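Appendix B: a complete holo record

For completeness, this appendix reproduces one full record from the ligand-bound portion of the collection. The bound molecule is S-adenosylmethionine. The inputs are the chain sequence and the ligand SMILES; the output is the full three-dimensional arrangement of the complex, encoded as structure tokens. No fields have been trimmed.
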Amino acid sequence: MSSVTPSGRRVSVRRTVSKIWDLRALLYDVCEGSDLRRGPAKAELFRHMRGRALFVAVGTGLDIKRFPPGLEIVGIDISETMLRRAEPRAHQYPGPLKLLQMDAAHLGFADASFDTAVTSCTMCSVPDPVRTLRELYRVLRPGGSLLMFEHVRSRNPVFGLALDLMTLWTRLSGTEMNRDTVQNVVAAGFRIVSIESAYLDIVLAIRGTKDAPPKNHTRREAQRGPRGLTHTLTVR
Ligand SMILES: C[S@@+](CC[C@H](N)C(=O)[O-])C[C@H]1O[C@@H](n2cnc3c(N)ncnc32)[C@H](O)[C@@H]1O
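The structure of the chain with S-adenosylmethionine bound, as generated:
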């Protein structure tokens, strides 16, 4: 677990979340292991990984086979059972890949210590997505890349409502189907580089960056965000 000491409420949320995902880990590969989970779109996104990369949350490691070889990767997850199942896949990665049990909202890494931050079906699962994204922003170096493969709430009113209704029960097992992840990315301070559709406007490959502050900016100005949504969605 992360070395950060969170408040009492945070500890109990963290315990509940990790218990839910420990249970889900038992059948995770059976339910989610198929390449129907948009494998090629993920591989295309992960192609942009560079240097020292942080993968949040790694789950049972299904995505590891799609990482470019030879990077230095740290994979974290809140669930010990997920991580245990990810271990054999981590061993097969051709490069240094370390797995750590950690809460994504309290990362035990130094500021600006990664070149790339990657998420995959993570933002539907963490209790506080903006806080998590702010942590990713903190640990990413200026100029570094954020790569996300996420499902989000549709802007189509019918699909959007369907996702709201689904969330009433998926929430019980830790999954929110209707988050506005693009807005959350911007709220955390990132600039959106591109958004590509992997399925309608519901499953998205999002690329963002932490801009280096202009030389005459103060630290406070650099942290202010959000910068506004200037992207266009590319539908395949
Ligand atoms: C839907 S799974 C995705 C796993 C993997 N990225 C994949 O696509 O197969 C969500 C993952 O988020 C992890 N998770 C949930 N809350 C977390 C948190 N606060 N910190 C770190 N990991 C968390 C769960 O344990 C689970 O492995």
